[in-house]
Write a structure and sequence with these properties.
- Two copies of one chain form a homodimer.
- The first copy, chain A, is α/β, with parallel strands linked by helices and about 300 residues long.
- Chain A has one domain: UDP-N-acetylmuramoyl-L-alanine:D-glutamate ligase, CATH 3.40.1190.
- Chain A is built from ten helices and 13 strands.
- Chain A has helices at about 30-35, 55-65, 125-135, 150-155, 155-165, 175-180, 185-195, 235-250, 255-270, 285-300; strands at about 5, 10-15, 20-25, 45-50, 65-75, 80-85, 95-100, 120, 145, 170-175, 200-205, 210-215, 215-220.
- Chain A has a nine-stranded mixed beta sheet with strand order 5-4-1-8-9-10-11-12-13, sandwiched between helices. Chain A has a four-stranded mixed beta sheet with strand order 3-2-6-7.
- In chain A, a hairpin with a 6-residue loop joins strand 6 (about 80-85) and strand 7 (about 95-100).
- In chain A, helix 6 (about 175-180) crosses helix 7 (about 185-195).
- The longest helix of chain A has 18 residues, at about 255-270.
- The interface of A and B includes residues 184, 186 and 303 of A.
Chain lengths: ~300, ~300
């Protein structure tokens, strides 16, 4: 079923202990849409790029079923650019450069055909832009998922809380859950955040997996321990894309199915980190994905006697 | 089946954001033995205390099936004492005082009846003492588990490596696995540590759960997300006690059964942190433990479609 994805389509320059990648394809919406495209081919993308964004990459996205009618290509302007360097343990990174470029005055306009999309995935962006997208929908989507980060909590908490109130699923990391709720315990944080609006909360813990909360219900998905994490950029977005893609494919928003969606999201994220940029995300198929998901199953599965 | 437990029986003074506890019962062997006593009542304890250790606590341990023939009670001397203060997030702590007292010249002597124990749990102590215990065994136990910490890696790595070579299961935390192996990735660390001797490796990650490795096999047990962690002291020892207690009860060292043992250990640790000292460990029974284990099952269990 139709999925609307919103977020950045951009360039990244990345340095990790394993090497460097200069001005490679990145952006939350790129990762989200590509990950989701392995589950559904009815994807409506909303974003903005400059005329420097490679046509070949756009063609590839179209080939994977991603509708680019909502991609604003600004002539004579440059795409959003981020540069960062990861520390040895990959858990911390320094931002070396952020050039907003086309993003500075991004004002998303949804094509008419997008306005009835059944699922909405709002990638990390200013809360105001996320709100603008929600307001343009003709019908309230069956499920709205919002990803955000500490940066918006620091500088735009009131606007962020307004948009959080309107969504069904919030995805943030553990530190952000603590910042947003003022509670250190994630169990207590979830209770506070539920009261802010979202019925579901997904707390991403990087190499330690992810927690899904719905009221008193709780589900813990591990991250797959990997011999090598090559580049963590985009892992959270890829997780979100796999999650919402699986929901859109199955059309089922029960807690049981959300658990599976979290596992599929985790599996997609485990691929993402194996290569720079979207390198690995271009090489997958249903077989490799299902085989990875089975690894998750055997990793945590146990039988009581 | 008979289980030999070795380690400290001691006093702790603890400060956490929830309160203070002054000179309460602690020590690795106390936590290990009490946790194990919920699974087997054939436990042989080896440790040393001063004459300041309360008789009532020793009586309680005996009542729980813990044989104290191997507990050396030194007249006119004081028990080992540790004082520590936890930071707000409970993941870091400062040691405020360490008084070795009777531990300074502890030379464990195994009563004859201990020397055929089928399972051996070596709690955190100097590697030399751990080795002395192994050498006194008449028959090689079916399974030897060793717990240690970064302190011994810093000051006694050669002796530690010698004793690690002789054990089947090593339990350490993630930072210690990295220090011991020189590898950041836990998957790579496990491979290096397997080559040092232990067929099994358990990496404890505190609030993020535990990983069990055996060659290419890997199992991930979550920690139960709790609303309140009251006092983390002894959680790792309680985990080890629950683990080896379950193995001793079932007499089964297959990987499938070790998975269950890791879950039982995690369940016992989740109780331990709910009160100061051994407070909560005194209040359990088979029903409360099984109900907690079921929570772990529903926390991670998912069905693929």
């Amino acid at each position: 079923m139709s999925l609307l994805t919103v977020g950045t389509v951009a360039f990244d320059s990345i340095e990790t202990p394993y090497g460097k990648a200069d001005r490679v394809v990145g952006g939350a919406c790129t990762y989200i849409s590509l990950a989701a495209s392995y589950f559904t081919n009815d994807i409506n993308l909303v974003s903005v790029v400059g005329d420097d964004f490679p046509d070949s990459e756009l063609k590839y996205m179209k080939k994977r079923g991603i509708n680019l009618d909502g991609l604003d290509i600004k002539e004579g302007e440059k795409s959003f650019f981020w540069a960062g360097k990861y520390h040895d343990n990959m858990n911390k990174r320094d931002t070396l450069a952020t050039e907003l470029n086309v993003l500075a005055d991004f004002n998303p306009k949804l094509p008419a055909s997008y306005k009835n999309s059944k699922y909405l995935m709002l990638g990390n962006l200013t809360p105001e832009i996320q709100m603008k997208v929600i307001k343009q929908m003709k019908k309230r989507p069956k499920l709205i998922v919002l990803d955000t980060m500490n940066f918006w909590m620091d500088i735009a908490m009131p606007a962020l809380k307004k948009v959080i109130k309107k969504v069904d699923v919030l995805t943030i990391n553990d530190e952000e859950a603590r910042q947003l709720s003022g509670e250190y315990s994630l169990v207590k944080a979830a209770k506070v955040i539920h009261k802010m609006g979202p019925k579901y909360l997904i707390i991403k813990k990087g190499e330690h997996g992810a927690l899904l909360f719905q009221g008193e219900k709780m589900f813990y998905a591990p991250a797959l321990p990997l011999a090598e994490v090559f580049d963590p950029t985009g892992a959270g977005d890829t997780f979100a894309g796999g999650f919402i893609g699986y929901i859109a494919k199955t059309g089922n928003t029960s807690f049981e199915n959300m658990k599976r969606a979290v596992i599929y999201g985790s599996a997609m994220a485990s691929f993402c980190v194996e290569e720079f940029s979207i390198g690995k995300l271009k090489k997958l198929n249903a077989r490799t994905i299902n085989s990875r998901v089975k690894k998750f199953s055997s990793l945590v599965n146990f039988k009581l006697d």
